[in-house]
Amino acid sequence: MKKLTIISSVILSSLLILTGCGSNSSKKSNVTSKVKVVKQSSSKKSQKGVAKKKSGSLWNNDKDSHLEDFMKQWGEVMNQTYTKYDGTNNIQTASGMNYPQDFGSATVDGHDVSMAWNKKGTGKNDYNVVAIYNYNNSSNFSITYAFTLADGEPIVLVNEDSGNNWSETKNKSLKENFVNIFDGKATHVEKPAASSSSVKNSTKGTEDMGEGRGGYVTTPEAMRGTWYSKSEDGMKKLIISEHEITSISTDGETNHAVLYKRTKDTPSDVSESERQSKEEWRSAGNIGANGISMRGWYQLQGGGEHFFTHEEEINGQKVPLVLYGFGANDLTDYVYYPSEDLANQQSDAKYDDINYKF
Description:
With 358 residues, the chain is an alpha+beta fold. 25% of the residues lie in helices and 33% in strands. It contains six helices and 22 strands. The strands form four sheets. Strands 13, 14, 15, 16, 17, 18, 19, 20, 21 and 22 form a ten-stranded mixed sheet that branches. The longest helix is centred in the first third of the chain and has 41 residues. It is globular, with a radius of gyration of 32 Å.
């Protein structure tokens, strides 16, 4: 009986030892599994994060040179000559700002932000500016682009007014090519179609596109897009791009205009067939920093058309508008809104700071 008790005790002890080993083995397996998960997660860092860790920067001299080459080509297409910030001397704009010095008081879409020059693009600002390009079109009008990295993402900001408020550019070419440069890819500058007789006019410094066209006239960035205006007759539509304006009447009639700089006097003896062949051409010009005026290519008498960017507070929010007028003065015939819904809602609205014709 004693032998049986001893054997039973030995067997029970062995079972307890084996059970303990099994439990420890299970715990060890679980710990190992968790470590693997952590390692797998840490290995999925973005390429940008890895690049930053290795080089200490998101922007470098190669990318900067690539952007400079692109801006030279793009400026030629736009008939604009851009000055690059050299990293030392402030760029002074025609509208009175000095960059990067004045970034300290800049706003984006009216909101306070932290915006500063940061050559490597790795600063803690909302917008780390890695390149600045400015074009002074006149004594009081300028277009300034800030190429920025916001939380590691490439964003192009533009300022076209006399203040220090910026907005993200709507220019598709600039946006896409800056991303390409940031990612180390090739850029592409799409040139507008020009006359086969186009030659470079070295005296005037503008592109001679033939038949009195000295290049395209560029619309303000804030004006570009699709706009709507509701009247008693129905809904009108306005589509504005860099060099073209298309209006669609309430009955669906479409008028397309291509904006050119006229370099020759308008002739008075023009055949009807010649007029029709230039039906879409407009002799256009900028009105300050936020306007465009245009007349028929062979128009000798009568007022032209004018478009202005404007902003109103509607339902507690600032809303961009386009004001349209026809005639010799700057009075407004129609107010265009950024959406059909808003145009419907505000069809009867009158604003105190707009000079209406009627």
